[in-house]
Amino acid sequence: MKVILVNIKELVQVEEEARAWVAGKEMNELKVLHDAFLVINDDQIENFGLMQDFDETAVDGADMMMEIDCTGKIVMPGYCDSHTHLVFATSREQEFVDRINGLSYEEIARRGGGILNSAKRLEQASEDELYLSAMARLDEIKQLGTTAVEIKSGYGLSVKSELKMLRVIQRLKETSPLTIKSTFLGAHAMPVEYKNKRQKYIQLIIQEMLPEISQQGLADYMDVFCDRGFFSVSETAQLLEAAWKYDLQPKIHANELGLTGGVQVGVQYQALSVDHLEHVGEAEIEALLGSKTMPTVLPGAAFFLSLPLSPVRKMMNAGLPIALASDFNPGSSPSGNMNFIQSLACINYKMTPEEAINACTLNSAYAMGIEKSCGSICRGKLANLFITKVLPGYAAIPYFYGSNPVETVIINGEIY
Length: 416
Prior knowledge:
The protein is an alpha/beta fold and 416 residues long. Helix content is 35%, strand content 24%. It is built from 15 helices and 18 strands. Strands 1, 3, 4, 5, 6, 16, 17 and 18 form an 8-stranded mixed β-sheet that branches. It has an 8-stranded parallel β-sheet with strand order 7-8-9-10-11-12-13-14. Strands 2-15 form a two-stranded parallel sheet. Strand 10, helix 7 and strand 11 (249-254) form a beta-alpha-beta unit. Helix 5 runs parallel beside helix 6 and helix 6 (198-216) runs parallel beside helix 7 (233-245). The protein is globular and about 70 Å long.
């Protein structure tokens, strides 16, 4: 079936030829067509342009055709949320209260909270329970404009529970319309029973988890939490070397808690992205320049935990690209609202709306390895996009923080 969007007030992030990403000063450039049309054929973008050039007879021959009037509305590529942990058993609002009362994230973790708390609860949950709650979260973020998402394991921390999580993600891939990438994050934290046997847990990941995950085809990537109090640079290197042996490209949790070398080891092992980056210095910028690793900032986590803000302006001024993601998880960023992530980017990080949109679409698509099919309005790419309510312009999306500007979502050509 053909779907034709007409009278689009602003058609945002259009490309004649697909790009991998935008970086540096180009982050502030955004191609927008005013008073535009867009033609969807089955699951792909077939054509777009200005209404003055729209030839209705060129699409009349379709057996089935639907026309949507977008007068006063904005059409954008769907958000690509390249970092989430949205498969989890229960929320952790008690830790939220603990932080209000003065405990730090690291202090809560040392008391058995944080990731270990989620792991304990996930172990007790069934696959069906995890699937149903995660599907509800996927439906929620879909209505907020997200059409592609990366989901990490990491609340298992045992062979049995990590495989359970990854099977749930596989099931979500098969049943949700969203484009989903799966990341194995067995190295999310050190289980209590391995506190004084760190190398034994690392060998459990390498010798038991990775072979089983590879055999069952349960992951697209492998992540490691390389930071103070979690996994060291040398331990991370050991794990990433093993990941490549199973054709799992790395992704890294890096420099959330300090300048701990996570960026450099990520670049060394050709990580697709290094994520968090609350702490970035000259050495980290130098390592990223010229690499194919996408620096990914998670404004929701910094907002929720009152962390230092990533120096995104310094990074862009140096010529780097920036991606943004929600870090949707029960402990440090319990929201998958990418519209709010844009607001935080503009308000707290002083990114322009153009920079924020590039970071939430094209660059974040690259950060999850789908830039050839998602992240922009380009002929031949998947018809993954959303139509806003009537708005004065795309800058109104981050301006109206906390509200949902999305009226209609289209995924693979299907209207939701």
